[in-house]
Amino acid sequence: xxxxLINIMILVQVLSALTIVGLVLVQHGKGADMGAAFGSxxxxxxxxxxxxxxxxxxxTGVAAVIFFSTTLTLSYLSSSRHAGVxxxxxxxxxxxxxPAPTPAPAAISVSPAANGAASAPSAAPAAAPAxxxxxxxxxxxxxxxxxxxxxx
Length: 152
Prior knowledge:
Order of helices and strands: HHHH
Strand content: under 5%
Shape: elongated
Distance between the termini: 99 Å
Radius of gyration: 41 Å
Helix content: 40-55%
Number of helices: 4
Number of strands: 0
């Protein structure tokens, strides 16, 4: 019985929403009333020059009252239907155990470059090169470690 009532209320709500959309689209704006006042063809309509706007406005208001009342009724019915359930959607999900932590990856070794250059510098700083070693290192393309001392 309860699901039948909810289905009927949803049907009434959808029909009232479609009625509101249709009535709003049929209505004329404020600028259309000025044309009817100066003898436009709207004065010979079914409801008269001003009667159609009042009828459509009142019909839209009635459809809006029906729409809001069905919305409130549906919210009341769904809250009473789920009175024992508290919380949100995520509370109804099944609980699963957390996956085991994965071990940290091993250190990645650095391979020498394809052109035969020296591998990455080690953690310990190398000794400062002799005075004649710097031009030779620049010619061979290898990087020279920089010393923290200023040469004299």
